[in-house]
Amino acid sequence: MITIKLNNQPFDLPNDYMTLEELISHKGINPGGTAVAVNNRIIKHENWPVTKFNDGDSVVIISAAFGG
Fold it and tell me: Per residue in 6-49, pLDDT tens?
């Protein structure tokens, strides 16, 4: 089992081969207006389907809030 740090909280991936795109979907996050960094490196949206995780990776997901 792979455990990452997701927004500074431990998170066990449901499977060891989960991609960043699958993680976003699994967490129910709207990909529009969302930025992701893995180990302090911004991951372009086009690379989400091929970005996989290693045990202990630090993942930060930031979603823009709309409205007022």
Answer: 999 999 999 999 999 999 999 999 999 999 999 999 999 999 99
Q: State the residue for tokens 């091929």.
A: 50
Q: Which helix (H) or strand (E) covers residue 5, if one does?
A: strand 3-6
Contact (CB, 8 A) for 4 and 58? yes
Token pair belonging to 57: 């990776």
User: In angstroms, how far apart are the furthest CA atoms of the chain?
Assistant: 41
Q: Are 56 and 26 in contact (CB under 8 A)?
A: no
Give the torsion through C-alpha atoms of 4, 8, 10, 16, to 10 deg: -20
